[in-house]
Amino acid sequence: MKKISKTIVMKFGGTSVASHDAVMSLVGIVKRLREKRPVLVVSAVSGVTEALLALPRATEKELGKQIAAIRKTHLKLVQELFKDKRARAEVMDYVDEQLKKVRTLSRKENVFPKDKDELVSYGEVMSSFMISRVLRSHKIAAEQIVATHMIVTDDAFTQAEFLPNETRKKTRDILYPLIEQKVVPVITGFIGATEDGRVTTLGRGGSDYSASIIGHCLDSDEVQIWTDVDGVFTADPRVVKNAVLIPEISYKEASEMASFGAKVLHPRTIKPAIEKKIPIRVVNTFNTECPGTLISSHHTGVGLKAIAFKRNVILINIYSNAMLFSRGFLARVFGIFAQQHISIDLVSVSEVSISVTLDNSGQLDSAIEQLKEFSTVSVYRDGFGVVSLIGEKILSRPGLMSDVFSLFQKNRVHLQMISMGASDINVSLVIPSPDIVLAVTLIHNHFLGADNAPENATRLKE
């Protein structure tokens, strides 16, 4: 089937579908961009994913109350969004049908990861149906699409990866006829299914990833992430009050920011877009006049652009004299982590020791026991965080690290570990968790304050 020109994929997050005003803004955005053939991806209503995940732990009495609370959340929205009683009844009948399935799943004696994936999928299923009917009520032809029919994944439940060839064929077969008829598809974010039809999820925040996957499959002109912030900032504006909006950054910089704690994008969002050179735009549902941040292959200058952070990481120090002048020691260590499904985040190596931070804990206890067979291992499960300085050719600024060390020394911030990427785009600092906010603020004010912000950056309005 031929490529359809001028499609844009628009992902709307949980807060963008959680209130009357937010949904009306969504409707206005779709109307305004109708000629660009929008394809919508929606998250569950804000708070519903967490509520669904809590259900298997509930007693029978609590279960009824908690499901009733989820229903009430949707009912309130439906009453605000639909004037027509028949439209209200249609949506609530659909919600009730899904909540019956939720109740059945929640009652299972043993809830395995595959069951959790199916359980949590109903948040997006309900929201996508509701949004499709809201669009119809505003004379926009729309159709709900449950992504389990399109996005084909492996069976890594809770963190599934999509299978490109299978997903591309199904996505085009389902979406192209709708787009040709000028129908707006409203697709469930966050979820997919294995080849044999079992529901999977793409990781928390995976609706961003869903949008990027669909854009990749359709060769879309742009992927838009509609959220509740104006775009990508030089630091988290909730932590650094004088953070500034960055109008454009590169794929590499955005990938590093997402991987090292920036909350605006799901970490895996960038990869499918990079492969097809599809720009990603991060924009605010509640401030549609703001152009947001464009993420693309364009070179946007060198030096420090932004600071990301993680408040808590697992830090492991591995010491062994056998490491000195030996071959294969690092491979042995990393092989153990891989075998136990543990993803390593940062690495720092000396002649006789390795320090790593972990992206996920996997089967950590088993890995530690194996490592102790040939080394001394210290594990810090809490107490440390990571501050990451991000920008292409970040070390091109003379004295960058000496200034950071000086700031830390003056303010008694203890530096536990430092890791520099080979690509010269990220310098990450492991420090005590209580000092994270102080460190981020100090570094931002020194390097990215009013006189040093990236070119064309926009200051956050009060």
TrEMBL record:
Belongs to the aspartokinase family. This is Aspartokinase. InterPro entries: AceGlu_kinase-like_sf, ACT-like_dom_sf, ACT_Aspartokinase, ACT_dom, Asp/Glu/Uridylate_kinase, Asp_kin_monofn, Asp_kinase, AsparK_Bifunc_asparK/hSer_DH. It is an enzyme of class 2 (transferase). Signal peptide: none annotated. It catalyses: L-aspartate + ATP = 4-phospho-L-aspartate + ADP. PROSITE patterns: ACT, ASPARTOKINASE. Pfam families: AA_kinase, ACT_9. GO terms for biological process: homoserine biosynthetic process; lysine biosynthetic process via diaminopimelate; threonine biosynthetic process. ATP binds at K11, F12, G13, G14, T227, D228, R238, K263, V264. GO terms for cellular component: cytosol. Pathway: Amino-acid biosynthesis; L-threonine biosynthesis; L-threonine from L-aspartate: step 1/5; Amino-acid biosynthesis; L-lysine biosynthesis via DAP pathway; (S)-tetrahydrodipicolinate from L-aspartate: step 1/4; Amino-acid biosynthesis; L-methionine biosynthesis via de novo pathway; L-homoserine from L-aspartate: step 1/3. GO terms for molecular function: aspartate kinase activity; ATP binding. Keywords: Amino-acid biosynthesis, ATP-binding, Kinase, Nucleotide-binding, Transferase.
